[in-house]
Design brief:
mainly alpha, MetI-like fold, 2 domains, about 75% helix
């Protein structure tokens, strides 16, 4: 049996402190989300008369139904495109040893160095010429290009750690390179795929600047932009703001809890690879 040592106690205390540090902001968020507007007491103090009317008012006044649908559409489509393009692009970059492979990889990595704000104006003009301003598909196109360099970097680094024995065996058995990638390599990419899925989903879902830029002046909006609409210059209804934040968090938490085991194991495996 493992003996309970002072080091174990110290680690447990550190973990408890970290858990409290993470849980405290969540407590404040939920506490204020169920607080009546007339209650102006400290945010730390538990709400004496909690109410769910803030959620109804936030949903109705902020048009969160349409904003939530747009956020889901943009996030799902963008992440699917990014994962598909990045995985297919990373395979030859990791397996081909020709000089052009390294040059193309370095060219793609420029997307990690150059800030996208430098191209904000040309991209805006391009979206305008394409007639995509005010449409969620402008965001899908933008995120699909923005997130590909980072995701390709993850896939390429992971592929370089995988042995080629299984691929060579598939080629000997008559598989084409495309078939070998689909049936042999792609299943082995599950850890890094889950890692990329989580990172890209959080980045796209929480982005505020890009939807504000491309959807400005239209009835279309995403959750961060809709929540920002509750904050005014002179008057801010904070209970509605926090209620809207809770509504925005619920879909992400639902997906996380549904895929918790796969996400944790995949994220750990992706980082290890």
């Amino acid at each position: 049996m493992t003996r309970y040592r002072p080091r174990t106690l110290a680690l447990e205390l550190v973990m408890a402190a970290v858990a409290l540090a993470v849980a405290f902001p969540l407590y404040v968020l939920v506490n204020l989300a169920v607080r009546p507007p007339s209650d102006t007491s400290s945010p730390i103090r538990p709400t004496a008369s909690p109410t769910l009317e803030n959620f109804t008012a936030a949903w109705r006044q902020g048009g969160l139904g349409g904003a939530l649908a747009n956020s889901v559409l943009v996030t799902v489509c963008s992440v699917v495109v990014v994962l598909a393009v990045s995985s297919f692009a990373a395979y030859p970059l990791a397996r081909v040893t020709a000089r052009w492979s390294r040059s193309v990889f370095l060219l793609i990595m420029l997307g990690l160095v150059l800030p996208f704000q430098l191209g904000a104006l040309p991209l805006y003009q391009t979206m305008r010429d394409l007639g995509l301003l005010g449409s969620p598909w402008a965001l899908v196109l933008f995120y699909s290009g923005l997130q590909v360099p980072f995701t390709t970097f993850l896939y390429t680094g992971f592929l370089r750690t995988l042995p080629r024995d299984f691929e060579d065996a598939a080629l000997i058995d008559g598989c084409t390179p495309a078939q070998g990638f689909r049936h042999v390599v792609l299943p082995m990419l599950r850890p890094v795929t889950v890692t990329a899925l989580v990172l890209n989903t959080v980045a796209v879902w929480n982005d505020f600047f890009t939807p504000l830029l491309y959807l400005s002046g239209s009835a279309q909006q995403t959750m961060p932009v809709a929540i920002a609409g509750f904050v005014g210059q002179y008057v801010t209804d904070w209970p509605l703001v926090f209620a809207a934040l809770v509504i925005s968090i619920v879909p992400v938490l639902a997906v996380y809890f549904a895929l918790q085991r796969s996400i944790i194991s995949g994220f750990a495996g992706g980082l290890k690879g």
